[in-house]
Specification:
By secondary structure, the protein is an alpha/beta fold. The chain has 2 domains: 1-61, Signal recognition particle alu RNA binding heterodimer, srp9/1 (2-Layer Sandwich), CATH 3.30.720; 69-137, Roll (2,3-Dihydroxybiphenyl 1,2-Dioxygenase, domain 1), CATH 3.10.180.10. It contains 3 helices and 8 strands, in the order βαββββαβββα.
Length: 137
């Protein structure tokens, strides 16, 4: 088995794709107006409209089974070389910083913010020897 992507369902695909393209510097690959993917070397962030939910198995998904802008449990995470630099670059663009860059007890320096749908996004840089080793590629 291989974990390949996380899909975010939204009511406004273009707005969310624009946010993630600007925040990450990764260009999205659009399949339709209802679906785009931002691919990195180790994972993909898929963004789909609410209309795509019923396409998985017509008749099986109840209305509202995937609700946009209703996430209260998942954090989308991006490993970056310089989290403080990311913070500086996003300062005039992001409306909702949850925490400024902070070194966490597990050794990552993290910047937590919300995307336009309210999803939590963490940009982080390993800073302790153990954290650096964990993410060495």
């Amino acid at each position: 088995m291989d974990f390949v992507s996380t899909r975010v369902i939204t009511g406004d695909v273009a707005r969310l794709v624009d946010f993630y393209e600007r925040a990450t510097g990764v260009r999205a690959e659009w399949s339709t107006e209802d679906f785009a993917e931002l691919r990195t070397a180790h994972g993909t962030l898929a963004i789909g409209s609410t209309r795509t939910v019923a396409l998985f198995a017509p008749g099986l998904f109840a209305p509202g089974s995937a609700r946009p802008a209703d996430n209260n449990t998942v954090i989308i995470e991006f490993l970056v070389a310089d989290v403080d630099g990311v913070h500086r670059n996003l300062a005039d663009f992001v409306d909702d910083f949850v925490t400024e860059p902070t070194t966490m007890p597990w050794g990552n320096r993290s910047l937590l913010l919300r995307d336009p749908d309210g999803n939590l996004v963490n940009f982080f840089t390993p800073v302790t020897p153990a954290a650096v080793q964990k993410f060495a590629r």
